[in-house]
Amino acid sequence: MKKIVTSMIIFMALSTTGFAGERPQALSVSPFLGGYTYDGTQHMLTRPVYGLRLGYDITENWATEGVFDYVAGETTGKYPDVTRRHQDLNAYSYRLDLLYNFMPRETLVPYLAVGGGVTTIEYRDDHENTDATFNFGGGLKYFIADSIALRGDVRHVLAFDTHTLNNWEYTVGLSFLFGGEKPETPIAKTPEPPAPAVEAAPEAPLEPIPAAEPTPERMKYCVSLDIEFDINKADIRPQYHDEVAKVGNFMKKYPTTTAVIEGYTDEVGSDDYNMQLSQRRAESVVKFLVESFGIDPSRLSAKGYGKTKPVADNSTDAGRQKNRRINAIIDCALDVKELAPPPERLCMTLKMEFDTDSAEIKPRYYDEVNKVGEYMKNYPTTTAVIEGHTDNIGSSEHNRKLSLQRAENVVKYLEGKFGIEPSRLSAKGYGSTRRIAYNNTPEGRQKNRRINAVIDCVIKK
After folding, report:
1. Same-domain check for residues 169 and 27
2. Residues forming a β-bridge with 101
3. b/e burial code for range 182-201 (CB count within 10 A of at least 16 → b)
4. For the segment 408-421, what is each residue's pLDDT rounded down to a tens digit?
5. pLDDT higher than 50, residue 33
6. Per-residue DSSP letters for 201-259?
7. Of 452 and 325, the one with more pLDDT
8. pLDDT band per the 50, 70, 90 thresholds, residue 338
9. Mean pLDDT of 9-19
10. What is the CATH number of the domain that holds 18?
11. Burial (Cβ within 10 Å: 0-12, 13-18, ≥19) of residue 269
12. 232 and 104 share one domain
């Protein structure tokens, strides 16, 4: 018992804030060792136990584990059967456990566990005994990295033989997590920006050399790109395709221009992960320009800066959204003729939110949907893609169906009230896969229960 208490104190002393803990849909592998104490009536000595747990996090709170452990045991000299005194034995246990994690996003994660299985004891004299078991207990996980945790565990194991046996198992080990959703815990406090420092050997600046100032015969033309991303995504949102197209058309018209695409993230997650995510965002834009506009890859470069250089406060959802972005540094061009001014465009958007687990359009959004209907009636060549989304409450399959139902309800409303042809409308459900806010607060979940509409723009004549 002293060993158990000491282990618990050590884990509590190590507790600090920092790394995120459990994450939904992650797989875990947990080797362990410890001690196993048998019921006194079994006349067996306490011996080391070794084993392995294979787990799956159903949600961030609930998990299941398959467990195997082994004890190389020995009977005591007080065994009632004289022929089996001081006899060696091998004990094998197999069980399935259900765990509930408290404070799953913290560095220190306490949990309770319950489960059942069987234990087989093989004696040296070839006698074998198999009993059903039931266990309950708990433990602590201390995350020393995003996917690695130290772990301590205590179980009361009931073995059902001719009478109920009360055994104890106490172990320590490591847990390794694989896959699953990345942690959503936002950084609680934005650090003060560092004081400017003079670098001994700065890298060559990314900004292109400014073009010469225009003369009366030559005009200077420039283009910029600023777009934002969903949480933990590198896909270009459909609403920004036109913005990226402006860059593509500009670079096609002026084939000597080059561009540096810079990707950024908010402060949620580890430094390494955010650096990789920002690089993927930049490369996604480069790929779009190469494949859609035929821009030579040698004219484009992608650079990820992770969570550095924030443009907004990371302590709010709105600020984190602004930091999940792309900026592009693009050469300006000189031309002898003036570009024709772009035609004036008329566009329409639709954004609305839903109650928890509901696909019903709230009355306060009727005016917004009506504007879309009038717009599509006035411009009969336009089409619209209605995208439905959910928060992370519920299973993936349930959320996918719910998000699709939300989108279909908007489509039915437009068809029924405004007579919009079904061929001009399509509904898509994305479940909880495209978040615009973090799901760890009621406000964030409300923002994610939404509809977005991608609607054609028209040229005003």
Report:
1. yes
2. 111
3. bbbbbeeeeeeeeeeeeeee
4. 999 999 999 999 99
5. yes
6. SPPPPSSPPPPPPPPTT-EEE----EEE--TT--SPPGGGHHHHHHHHHHHHHSTT--E
7. 325
8. very low
9. 41
10. 2.40.160.20
11. buried
12. no
How many domains is the chain partitioned into structurally? 3
Name the nearest CA neighbour of 330 among 205, 208, 204, 203. 208
Find the mean pLDDT for residues 288-313.
93
- Residue 201, pLDDT above cutoff 50: no
**Does 246 share its domain with 365?**
no
Residues spanned by the domain of 60: 2-178
Sorting pLDDT into bands at 50, 70 and 90, what band is 206? Answer: very low
Q: What is the pLDDT of residues 234-283, one digit of tens each?
A: 999 888 888 899 899 988 988 888 999 999 999 998 999 999 999 999 99
> Please, which pLDDT band fits residue 220 given cuts at 50, 70 and 90?
low
Of 84, 63, 83, the C-alpha closest to 75 is 84
User: How far is 439 from 268, CA to CA, in rounded Å?
Assistant: 13
Cα angle 96, 53, 144; round to 5: 135
- 233/433 Cα distance (integer angstroms): 9
Q: Where a domain ends, among 335, 363, 395?
A: 335
Q: What is the mean pLDDT of the chain?
A: 83
**167: β partners:** 157
Residues 357 and 432 in one domain: yes
> Is 213 within the bounds of a domain?
no
Domain boundary among 291, 311, 335: 335
Please, what is the angle between helix 241-253 and helix 271-293, to 10°? Answer: 60
Residue 403 belongs to a domain with what CATH number? 3.30.1330.60
Rounded to a whole number of angstroms, the distance between the first and last alpha carbons of the chain is 84
What is the H or E stretch that residue 278 is in? helix 271-293
**Number of neighbours of residue 402 by Cβ within 10 angstroms:** 23
